[in-house]
Amino acid sequence: MFADTAYFTGLTAGFGLILAIGAQNLFVLKQGLRNEHVLAVVLTCVLSDSLLIWLGVGSFQQVLARAPWLDPVMRFGGAVFLFWYGAKSMHSAMHSTHGMRALASAPTPMRQVLGTCLALTWLNPHVYLDTVVLLGTLSTRFPGNEHAFAGGAITASVLFFSALGFGASYLRPLFAQARVWRVLEAMVALLMWWLAIRLV
To answer: Side-chain half-sphere of 131: how many Cα atoms within 13 Å?
Structure first.
């Protein structure tokens, strides 16, 4: 019974943290809209989240205590990447004229897509705050059942990223309009820059 409570607490906590719009979520949405490497992107996000959650349950705070230099390095690297990605999205927002049709004609190589996905995940210190620190701290409320808690949080990740990536195809007619796509790209750019500023 206590394991069930731990699992459902992990599930609800995982959903609560992952539902906030962030860089990773918008990237998954865009790939789903493009119908490009969706399965690979969803699996990358889920596996990354799973590793981070297990790291949190195993106490990431001890790692930072032993390597305090890791925090500023992650912050600076993440800020640089977010500024660059935001600029790329803003360029698309200002110059795109064909919406989804133009993007569909120029697929991005999987290596580049997965590289961007991994960078948006692992170079974002807020991901560590959510999945490692907060979920790791919450798991301590269930001594002996931390694995059940982690399982619930990982289930939330699987359900959310699968729904976001594969469900985005239903929005394709809307984003076929260049104006709507430009609005999405502009929102991505502004969010990236805001996150980058917060990091520095």
So the answer is: 27
Taking only the tens place, the pLDDT of each residue in 145-159 is: 888 989 999 999 999
Q: What token pair was written down for 84?
A: 């660059």
* SS percent in the chain: helix, strand, coil, step 5: 85, 0, 15
This prediction's pTM? 0.72
Task: Give the separation between CA 109 and CA 50, rounded to whole angstroms.
Answer: 25
Higher-confidence position of 47 and 91 = 47
Select, from the ranges 26-30, 94-98, 130-134, 181-185, the one with the highest average predicted confidence (pLDDT). 26-30
What is the Cα–Cα distance from 93 to 183, expressed in whole angstroms?
7
- Which residue type sits at 104? A
- Give the whole-angstrom CA distance, residue 185 versus residue 94: 9
Instruction: Give the total residue count for the chain.
Output: 200
Residue pair 45/131 in contact (Cβ under 8 Å)? The answer is no
Question: Rounded to an integer, what is the distance from CA 134 to the centroid of its chain?
Answer: 16
On whether the CB atoms of residues 120 and 196 are closer than 8 A, the answer is no
pLDDT of residue 45: 95
Pull the structure tokens for residue 114. 């997965």
For residues 88 and 14, the answer to whether their CB atoms sit within 8 Å is no
Determine the distance from the C-alpha atom of residue 181 to the mean position of all C-alpha atoms in its chain, rounded to a whole number. 20
